[in-house]
Write a structure and sequence with these properties.
alpha/beta, ten-stranded mixed sheet, four-stranded mixed sheet, 36% helix, Carboh/pur_kinase_PfkB_CS, EC 2.7.1.56, 1-PFruKinase, ATP-binding
Amino acid sequence: MILTVTLNPSVDRALEVDVLVRGEVLRAADSHIDPGGKGVNVSRALLANGIRSTAVVPTGGAEGDQLVDLLNAEGVDMLAVPIAGRTRSNITLAEPDGTVTKINEAGPALSDTEFAQVSKAVLDAASTADWVVVCGSLPPGPGIAAFTELCERLVGSGSRLAVDSSGAALLAGVAAGAALVKPNREELAEAVGREPATLGDVIEACHRLRAAGAGAVLASLGADGAVLVDADGVLAGVSPVSVPRSTVGAGDALLAGFLAAGARGSAALTEGLAWGAAAVSLPGSRMPGPADLDRTHVSVTPDPDPSRPLHS
């Protein structure tokens, strides 16, 4: 079982528009409402492919009730921890060429007591999990020290920890010795203080995170695919998408596919890229199932050319 932890989940409304024009009244061509948050999406992707997962989510207010209803409707196994604040709502505006504009609320503040209750739910459930996947932004309230302690307790208890976050939270996971971290290009740049321009820059940044404590680094690079750096070496892969619809949740699907396939080596990276590409081809934050996956377009290369430039 894979346990996912989303400390700042959301209700996601996605609207498809022909073109986004400021100051105009626009008509949506289509709309979708999905349960949101990076860890939630990992659980949804795993479930869509028949892999057992449990999602830990703090929930509050009418939006929290809606999130629980949406997860129940999809059949996602969850541990909902009640909080006083209102679960946030996010809006995604998607254009036909794949351009996505997101408006994310900050989310409710968690009190120290509420964060302790969430942490207890995670630690109790972690004892039967193959992986504990902590994803997304930190909510207002608990400081980085509390998050660091949670990561350290998970690693100290023997859990295989994966962290997909940004800023101080990502670095806390690295320092705690997470078995896997999954930054995107912007998060990787923030972590090492340098914007990557080539594949070699990405690889160097991944090596720096491993030297700081991470077991493996899976860097998602959008149209440039993904890079895996672990004890076995370096792999890079791409999976082109002919008709992109929404990039929301693509990195989460990549992580889910990678974990589902064993989280190691070319086969796992191939699976992750196939899941991520399928998510880009789907509307809103819908997660791909087996019928959506096409592994034939995935290309994975060991020891890739470090001089290869990244798309701007």
